[in-house]
UniProtKB/TrEMBL annotation, chains A, B:
Organism: Gelidibacter maritimus
Entry keyword set: FAD, Flavoprotein, Monooxygenase, NADP, Oxidoreductase
Full protein name: Trimethylamine monooxygenase
Broad enzyme group: oxidoreductase
Keyword Flavoprotein assigned: yes
SUPFAM superfamilies to which the protein is assigned, alphabetical: FAD/NAD(P)-binding domain
Cross-referenced InterPro entries: FAD/NAD-bd_sf, Flavin_mOase, Flavin_mOase-like, FMO-like
Signal sequence range: none
PANTHER family: DIMETHYLANILINE MONOOXYGENASE
Cofactor(s) the protein needs: FAD
Keyword NADP: yes
């Protein structure tokens, strides 16, 4: 009897146990706690631990089992937006840390927060780690996804069937790296931001960063903070344009290299020790037949996704977190809750044509956006649209939008001190603490150091094993 | 009529257009030139050009289309064995270069040589570039391989059927990278040899190399040649043990790091600027179901391959070049010629049990080998076994073995000058030229510089654009 019931259950496959995949697991867990019968859910994660990007790896290139490394994060990475803008509305920072913390925590602290919610809910059992999806076949007759998995640890492949497939494999993992004439002869290190693991090797060096993205901005500032002699950012269309410190500057696009000299569009040239390409990422889904692949550039509303998640040609194929992002964890949650309701037959899917009309409406609005403030408002409107459709705990999206705009202004004002500012949680009303050390003076990004409460200099020294800065 | 004949033709799929895949194409082309009817052959190559390893890429991590980078070669890579030991017996160095050259050419010169034979035979038309194999299904009913390919350039997947599948995708592409305690906190660059692209960034630095392989030996020497302050090689079991110059030394295995200090098994410790892991490669076939994967460590006679090529459980699945290698191009040829004959029904496959007995005989012999000289003899015997079975032009395998032993002694004597030695071709009888510049003084690895014939210092200066060394 139990067996029969079990086999009748719908099956959901989730690819990836990063913030998006974990949001999906959490969404089902919330329904289960509410007494609802949920489908059988299995999550497959290529890495040995959850957290996606937030699961730092010292490795670059490929991992232990020869799969491309997922993580693009680096040592000394601190949140580049206020934590109040990404707070889970069902698990606050206060609940996790039991005390107010600053608005811009380092990676290990945010990773700890992400894990808190799912540890509490025993979500680990749903995840098969060290397992990568090799190939997906959608069977038109059975209307099921047949997915070939590769259990990397034991070098074993197997196939499983799912009624729904949730692709939560991220889109900041596969570097986009253009060619520049002469780069093959550049004698120094050339790498993509994806392979950047910390600024230490660039001490006293002249660094060329190509790009004007968040990566370019943050890696540039990190290199400056950790002792690079100079940082030059080369932009294609527009400079980042904040108030840079003296040793950071922006120049137009690189045209070519001759040995270790880089030449730029404005006719200038300069010698560099190393090149870091912050030239973005590709949406890449090698395990999917191309007709099911989301083919898009990084933007706020990728085409072909109804409500930003349901693949319009086959809504049982669900993509999470594929948007360019202001809102992050809370947006993934809002998406996952809606996706869950659809998979539990609690959200009625409109017709394909209706979906198309809805998508087009968002695409048109997206086309009209002019500046960053518009982008924030647009993504806020998208999230409000999602929140209407599920029971994910409501949060004040507009107030978060105000914080994003504040943050944008703070960065413009001073790129080196914006992380010293504090914001107020829309979930708990708690005002963030000012951190014990100004960001530019804080060279240790460990959780222990971050959460340390000042009592005496000696205590801190004991905790972190080095002279406090 | 023609169509009908065409559809009746057997189809051969070759994965990879490196030296092994190209040898397979060349083998079929030779049969075609001899007037035989050959199967329909298609070769699929992930990269945009042929040559496998020899097709140098400045990229590391993933390529233009987000696939793992194949190449492990670097700037200033020179052959680390005499070219006379890898000469094609159907296309000599004399035929290609029209004059004697030295015994240890740089990579671009050997790449040029590899291409010469296939350009002459218009082999390019058989190859679909920028195309990777995603997944192979062997259909027991049709007895065909159904292979899903991904045309990376146009982001399109498609399936084709083959009677035979030749896996020539190499096994020096997927890094094996062990973890050492504390490595995640090492502040300098940490990379696998696969991602090493040249010694320049290590000028005046103290470099730690982990491993005692060819990569360790050669990257160590390259770093020394190009100005590293010191090179330390850490070995697991045995040191390389050649006469190192003063600034290169070998130490026992690394136990752990503490910041930038490495600790070794013998209790010593030292500070380093960068770590290069020359810790070998994995045989990795992500596109194959695990029951068809060759699962082996790098060794001279991987189990499960009859005559070193036919997968014993399914001989229509053919692996080329999967052995650890003294002999290279000429061994791939001997393998490809035999594989061709089998695919053209000209080589009768013995029973599975007979094949097993043959494999076991080789495995037993392999187990008894004691030193490098034994290894050379063993691989020589294997190649002679292959040569008996096909019409690949015979060559003096024993004489090549003698050269390998000479080479091993030369390296022992002086690791910095062994590349200045010369050998005599077993194909043409030609004695190699002494190169115009001693290897340690030659910092330019271009083909132009290499093939330059000294007339005047000024002429050379003109050719290579810099002061001759």
């Amino acid at each position: 009897m139990i067996n029969k019931r079990k086999t009748k259950k719908k099956r959901v496959g989730i690819i990836g146990a990063g913030p998006s995949g974990l949001a999906q697991l959490r969404a089902f867990e919330a329904a289960k706690h509410a007494g609802l019968e949920v489908p059988e859910v299995v999550c497959f994660e290529k890495q040995s631990n959850w957290g996606g990007m937030w699961n730092y790896s010292w490795r670059t290139g490929v991992g232990k089992y020869g799969e491309p490394i997922h993580g693009s994060m680096y040592k000394y990475l601190w949140s580049n937006g206020p934590k109040e803008c990404l707070e889970f509305s069902d698990y606050s920072f206060d609940e996790h840390f039991k005390k107010p913390i600053s608005s811009y925590p380092p990676r290990p602290v945010l990773f700890d927060y992400i894990q808190g919610r799912i540890k509490k809910n025993k979500i680990r059992d749903y995840i098969r780690f060290d397992t990568t999806a090799r190939w997906v076949n959608y069977n038109d007759e059975t209307e099921k996804f047949e997915v070939v998995f590769d259990d990397l640890k034991i070098d074993k492949t197997y196939t499983e069937e799912f009624d729904y497939l949730v692709v939560a494999s991220g889109h900041f993992s596969t570097p986009n790296m253009p060619y520049f004439k002469g780069i093959e002869q550049f004698p120094g290190q050339v790498m993509h931001a994806h392979d950047f693991r910390g600024a230490d090797p660039y001490k006293d060096q002249d660094i060329l960063i190509i790009g004007s993205s968040y990566s370019a901005e943050d890696i540039g500032v990190q290199c400056h903070k950790h002792g690079a002699k100079s940082v030059t950012l080369s932009y294609r269309s527009n400079p980042i344009g904040v108030n840079w410190p003296e040793s950071i500057k922006e120049v137009p696009l690189l045209t070519h290299f001759k040995d270790d000299i880089a030449y730029f569009k404005d006719g200038t040239s300069e010698r560099f020790d190393a090149v870091i390409m912050c030239t973005g990422y590709q949406h890449k889904f090698p395990f999917l037949p191309d007709e099911f692949r989301l083919k898009t550039k990084n933007n706020l509303y990728p085409d072909h996704l109804y409500k930003g998640v349901f693949f319009n040609n086959l809504p049982k194929l669900i993509y999470l977190g594929m948007q360019d992002q202001y809102y992050t964890f809370n947006m993934f949650d809002a998406q996952a809750w809606l996706a869950r309701d659809y998979m539990m037959d609690k959200f009625e899917m409109p017709s394909r044509r209706e979906r198309r009309v809805d998508i087009d409406r968002w695409l048109e609005a997206n086309d009209k956006l002019e500046d960053s403030f518009d982008h924030v408002d647009f993504q806020g409107a998208y999230i409000k649209d999602l929140l209407k459709l599920s029971d994910y705990p409501d949060f004040n999206v507009d107030e978060v939008g105000v914080m994003f705009k504040e943050w944008l202004k703070d960065k413009d004002d001073n790129i080196l001190t914006y992380r010293d500012k504090t914001f107020k949680s829309v979930v708990t009303g708690t005002m963030a603490e000012t951190h014990h050390t100004e960001w530019m003076d804080e060279l240790d990004d460990s959780k222990e150091r971050y959460l340390y409460q000042e009592e005496s200099e000696e205590a801190l020294e004991e905790v972190v094993g080095k002279q406090p800065v």
